[in-house]
Design a protein that fits this description.
binds pantoate, 2 domains, Rossmann fold, 6-stranded parallel beta sheet, Pantoate--beta-alanine Ligase, Chain: A,domain 2, 20% strand, 39% helix, alpha/beta, 3-stranded antiparallel beta sheet
Length: 281
């Protein structure tokens, strides 16, 4: 597996792949790989083409009060894991390579960035859209793979690709969960053993909502309150939001009449965890 540190090296690698007639399949990450990341890499590999993964903890998507400095990192482990699932190149740039002195440009997808996580993290998605746009220009992938755990991020990237006419297929991939239902996340390492146990309430509450919809419940307010109550019963949980929104526009809905996203963000100690499910009438 090639480790590429500069944009020039990436461009050369991509050119060589294209000369062999290969498609470029891209998995953007911030590293500290878990089974969720590896499932994206395997899917990118199984769909053919040359798999390139970016590993870049993007400072632009962290507010000054957030966890940029302590965000978990382990390059050697990530290197081994990526290699084990058939990744052919790992793009691991320095911050100065992505944002050289004097860097200014931002990409914004304002409507989709405002609700849900955008309320407590108002600059986060500008940072995500900007770095993903840069990566797309550098790597020129044919396909890019995104996990549905970061559902709002996925919708923003889909919108950005459409608005900017980028010839890239965005491939949404299912949430990967631990055996007890907790969605895999690099930030799960922040949890103490008690918080880790409590955090399973997110999956249990979302499952409850799914079952309600399967049994005919259509009232968004009933679902939202039911999920809130279940999470609030966990003493270690502090709710940031529980929302029931249209799965495409991310605008609040009153009734479940089309695909609807039930999304939660909850603090357990220092960790802010997100999870979601899409329900259909
Ligand atoms: O989902 C992530 O890990 C990041 O937000 C991404 C897409 C790699 C951009 O930094």
């Amino acid at each position: 597996m090639r480790i590429l540190r500069t944009i020039a090296e990436v461009r050369q690698w991509v050119r060589a792949q294209r000369q062999q007639g290969r498609a470029i399949h891209f998995v953007p990450t911030m590293g500290y790989f878990h089974e969720g990341h590896l499932s994206l890499m395997r899917r990118a590999r199984d769909e053919g083409g040359a798999v390139i993964v970016s590993l870049f903890v993007n400072p632009l998507q962290f507010a000054p009060s957030e966890d940029l400095e302590r965000y978990p990192r382990d390059f050697e482990r990530d290197h081994q894991l990526a290699q084990s699932v058939g990744v052919e190149a790992l793009f691991h740039p320095e911050v100065g390579e992505m944002y050289p002195e004097g860097y200014q440009t931002l990409v914004r997808v304002p409507k989709l960035s405002a609700p849900l996580c955008g309320r407590s993290r108002p600059t986060h998605f500008d940072g995500v859209a900007t770095v993903v746009m840069k990566l797309f220009h550098i790597l020129t992938p044919d396909r890019a793979y995104f996990g549905q755990k970061d559902y709002q991020q996925l919708r923003i990237i889909q919108q950005m690709v459409r608005d900017m006419n980028l010839p890239i297929e965005i491939v949404p991939c299912p949430i990967v969960r631990e055996a007890d239902g907790l969605a895999m996340s690099s930030r799960n390492v922040y949890l103490t053993p008690e918080e880790r146990r409590s955090a399973t309430v997110l999956y249990r509450s979302l499952r409850w909502a799914e079952e309600q919809v399967q049994s005919g419940e259509r009232d968004a307010c009933t679902l939202r309150e039911g999920v809130c109550q279940r999470i609030a019963r966990e003493p270690l949980a502090r709710i940031d939001y529980v929302e029931v929104v249209d799965a495409e526009t991310l605008e609040p809905v009153e009734q479940i009449e089309q695909p609807t996203l039930i999304a939660v963000a909850v603090f357990f100690g220092k960790a802010r965890l997100i999870d979601n499910t899409v329900v259909r009438p």
